[in-house]
Q: What sequence folds into this?
């Protein structure tokens, strides 16, 4: 049974009249009477704004982006109480403080819209969608948000109520960019290397503010023996031109493609960007360049939008009309996570702990509770000690927080392929891109094989999304696995590019 929604009515002085009104009769609210509507603009502490994707079945603006959580205040609710309730219902988020941005009277809809700002500190993938209201969400950086809110259909309608706050952001954008452009101190780059590649600094260029050029590094991507296999560059700062062109550019010579060298070079450049106190880095690519898009994903980028190239940009003159925009958050220091081969008994014990704990975290609802509850760290550690070969561990200082096991194929129909046998990360580290880094290292160590495959429970949607992003596809093979109760598992394979 549908619950009837009742509103308080207010007069033109903003005082309650003592009357209430049913939502089903909203069109009949008398002239001079209003009900309260609350909107909440949600911004993360790192500066990004939350956009919600409206359900495609909604009668008004189906499938459009909106920049708020909101709705009508119920009878007995104060405006801020209603804003907090709507925010929790539509996103699952709470905020210590709501700041009132504006109050707008809308005589045509007999409503008064109270617009609030909420600054949150949450995991960015923790948003909870409300059935029938929203079907997706995305976080966008300030520059993109300021552009989108004046272009998207619903956002344009919301813009006037948020304008008093957004104007303060626009006023601060240009001075900040100019301060960054004038920063010309360059840092040593001798340590930008892995076991597979190193970046050889070729030259640096100072800022040229009159051309909107920021300080830049230019590198050759080299193998350990010094052979050059490509090039990359890093541009230090942020402005409108770089939002389209990106902070990082790269290219790998054709004979050396298929080894994820571009993604590994990008990870090294992110390390250099942190030395300049950049909070984030933008990389863009052509929407038709699947390989470059995959590079951005492998390096840990978050897709923001496909942006139009403005006519004043030099890329427009080159024939480019759109770019995919990826953001790389640098607020968490990747250097604190080390990927290495397991060499000590303490590291194998750590593998055992991650094995037991991550199974109990990730497989709940997939594998029987009875089996998961019977697992012990002692048993999984014993297995790690029994089969220590080809084990990679991810360590946060001295703590093992993830591991991967790889080797030659165990499947008779794919004897010429490599296999990633296991890859697990503790849930508290899900958002640190550790799974990608473990997979990068395992994939690299299986370089002699033309393809690599994994087996994954058919109901493990999170893992399947991860493998899809990395480039694995289902190959049609399926079988039963029996950890206490039968579980259907499917095989996914990735061929080298």
A:
């Amino acid at each position: 049974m549908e619950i009837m929604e009742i509103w308080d009515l207010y007069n033109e002085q903003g005082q309650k009249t003592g009357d209430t009104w049913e939502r089903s009769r909203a069109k009949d609210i008398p002239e001079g009477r209003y009900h309260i509507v609350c909107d909440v603009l949600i911004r993360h502490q790192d500066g990004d704004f939350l956009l919600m994707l409206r359900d495609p079945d909604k009668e008004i603006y189906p499938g459009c982006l909106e920049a708020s959580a909101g709705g009508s205040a119920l009878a007995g609710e104060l405006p801020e109480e209603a804003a907090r309730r709507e925010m929790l219902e539509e996103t699952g988020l709470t905020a210590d403080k709501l700041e009132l941005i504006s109050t707008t009277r809308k005589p045509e809809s007999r409503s008064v819209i109270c617009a609030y700002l909420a600054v949150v500190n949450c995991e960015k993938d923790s948003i909870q969608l409300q059935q029938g209201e929203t079907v997706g969400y995305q976080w966008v950086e300030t520059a993109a948000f300021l552009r989108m809110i004046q272009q998207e259909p619903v956002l344009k309608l919301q813009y006037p109520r948020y304008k008093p706050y957004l104007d303060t952001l626009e006023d601060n954008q240009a001075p900040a960019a100019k301060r960054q452009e004038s920063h010309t101190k360059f840092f040593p780059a001798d340590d930008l290397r892995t076991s597979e590649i190193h970046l050889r600094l070729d030259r640096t260029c100072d800022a040229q503010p009159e051309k909107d050029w920021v300080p830049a590094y230019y590198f050759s991507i080299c193998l350990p023996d010094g052979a050059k296999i490509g090039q990359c560059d890093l541009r230090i700062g942020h402005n409108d031109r770089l939002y389209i062109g990106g902070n990082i550019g790269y290219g790998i010579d054709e004979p050396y493609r298929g080894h994820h060298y571009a993604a590994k070079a990008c990870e090294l450049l992110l390390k250099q960007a942190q030395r300049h106190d950049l909070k984030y880095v933008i990389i863009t690519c052509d929407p038709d360049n699947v390989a470059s898009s995959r590079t951005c994903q492998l390096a840990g980028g978050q897709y923001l939008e496909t942006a139009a190239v403005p006519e004043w940009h030099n890329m427009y003159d080159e024939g480019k009309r759109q770019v995919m925009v990826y953001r790389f958050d640098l607020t968490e220091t990747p250097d604190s996570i080390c990927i290495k081969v397991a060499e000590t008994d303490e590291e194998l014990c750590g593998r055992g702990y991650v094995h037991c704990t991550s199974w109990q975290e990730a497989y709940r609802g997939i594998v029987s509770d009875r089996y998961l509850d019977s697992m012990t760290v002692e048993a999984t550690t014993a297995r790690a000690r029994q089969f220590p070969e080809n084990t990679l561990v991810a360590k946060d200082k001295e703590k093992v927080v993830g591991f991967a096991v790889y080797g030659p194929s165990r499947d008779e129909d794919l004897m010429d392929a490599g296999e990633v046998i296991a890859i697990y990360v503790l849930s508290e580290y899900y958002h640190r891109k550790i799974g990608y880094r473990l997979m990068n290292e395992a994939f690299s160590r299986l370089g002699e094989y033309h393809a690599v495959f994994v087996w994954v429970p058919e109901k493990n949607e999170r893992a399947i999304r991860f493998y899809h992003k990395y480039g694995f596809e289902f190959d049609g093979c399926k079988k039963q696995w029996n950890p206490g109760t039968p579980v259907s598992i499917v095989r996914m394979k990735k061929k080298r590019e």
